[in-house]
Every structure is written in C-alpha cells, then in structure tokens.
User: What shape does this take?
Amino acid sequence: MSDAILKVDNLKTWFYTRRGTVKAVNGMSYSLNKGECLCLVGESGCGKSVSALSLLRLFDSPPGRIVEGHVLYKGVDLVNCTPGHLRSVRGKDIALVFQNAQAALNPVFSIEDQMLEQIKVHYDINNRAAIAKAQTLLEEMMIPAPERALKMYPHQMSGGMKQRAMIAMSLSCDPEILIADEPTTAVDVTIRAQIMHIFRRLKTSRNMSIIFITHDLSLVREIGDRVAVVYAGKVVELAPVAKIMEEPAHPYTRGLISCLPDISSNLNRLPSIPGNTPNPLDLPPGCAFHPRCSMAMNICSSNEPFLTGIADDHMVACHLYNARAGENK
Assistant: This one.
C-alpha cells in the first residue's frame, strides 16, 4: 500500500538447537499503515511474539537467525542494516511493550533510572527536563502520584502499575510505531480496560501506528483496524476486522471465532479446534493446518498454499480459494 510505513516480506526467523531447527517464523508477510492498528492473532506458539522481536532483531543470536526476508522501514531494511542504525531505530522510531513487565523491567534500578536512560540515549536534554517528561508520561498512563512512582522499584509496584510504567517507558521517545506483545495478559479486568483505553487514546491522539499481538479476539474488536491471523509462523488470513469477524475465510480463523463465548447462546460447552499447534521443529508438509482441518483435501497435505486475494483488502492462504484445488478433491 502506498501509505505503508512498515513492510514485512517473507520473514523467516529460525533457531538452531541440538534437537533441530525451530522454524518459529516461517514466511511472515504484512504491511502496517500510518495511524493503523494491525492485530496479530493466533494460538500460543504460532510465532507472534518471535515475529515482533524479529522486527528489531531482539532475539538471542545464536541460536536465532533471520535466514530470509526483509523488514522495510523508511526505505531501510532493518534485517540487513548496520547495528548503529538499528540502535537509533529501537526505542525512538519503533518501540516494544513486552508481555511480561516483571521480566522486562530491571529489578535493581528505579523506574526513574530506567526511563531517564531511555530518554537520554535518544535526546540531548538535561536531567530536570527528562524527569518532567517521565512524570508526564506516567500521568498519561493513569498512574497516581507519578513523582512518587518514579522513585519506586519494580517490586514495589502492582502488576498493573508495572505494565503501565513499561508502556510509558516505550513512549518516552515518541515512537512512530508501537509494538504491543499481549500487554493485557497478566492484569485483572479493571486494569485491562484501562490499558485498552490507553491504546485507543494513543491511536487517535498521536496518530500512532500499532502492532497489537493477542490471542483474544474480543480485544481485536475494541482496537483493531485490520487483522493478520498467524499460524505456524506465517500469516494465513489478512483482512479488516469487520470482514474477519463477519466473513472469516480460512478454516483456522473460523475455528478461532467459533471458540468465542456468546451470551446469547445456550451451549453447555464451547466448540474447540481439535489437536494442537504443530511443533516448529517438525512442521507438517503442505498446509501446516491440514492435520486439524475438517475441510482438508488431498492437495493440502502436499502443496503449501499462498496468500491469495479473494476480495478487496481480504487475503487468505488456503487451497479452498485456489482454482487448482478443485482438481484434487
């Protein structure tokens, strides 16, 4: 798209272990537009978080390595750029909110120390101005008494406060793109509502582009513009939120949506997708979803489907939408 500020093309991040090659991200492709919230959705273990870390090369290397693909930001490929250029992008242009705030925050430094370090790396400002900026951000995150919160250490904060402090830290350099890796996982319902309100406000007030990673489709309805459904390390369906929710095309997407609870339904038990996500050490041939798919055909076990446009802004990787699939039923 002409207004895309980030393009991910056939990204593959593999981990070379003693047990074999873990193909965590295995051909991820999507684009992110200015002011858009793109949601990456899928079960645990499908490669969402590793794909986010791969954008800024934040995974351990070794054993991880990007073996193929490109991440284009402002005309520069972040996969092949110099370490110096990548450091200038991390935190300032593209920031990441980690899933586990307890593990992401340094326990031996105060929130103030950690926020000021981030600010001073990218801005030439004095200590007083940096502290004022940090306080303003904590206040924006609805943390009470921000001047006191700055002096706190992570263990002195509740889970919700830690998560919001980490969001404030990620915003300290006014990034153009914010990657949120399941930011509501470890918080209660009230804090989750506050965090979602923060992200909606960021999207509208700052016109910020957001990659929102989640396995909760109810959150997608709240904040998303488009959805990329991820399975076995690649996108299997990509479309606007309304289209995904009302007209899901891929059998995996249909399965995910059917698992959503519905208060108008009298079902005693929610439906589920049979089986488990495939082991990235030993992915099945052809379509990775075919062992769990009730609509699988002969071609599905041998040929890998490719993303195909089936309508305006709607793409799916499934042989059901491939003209050649009819020959193999």
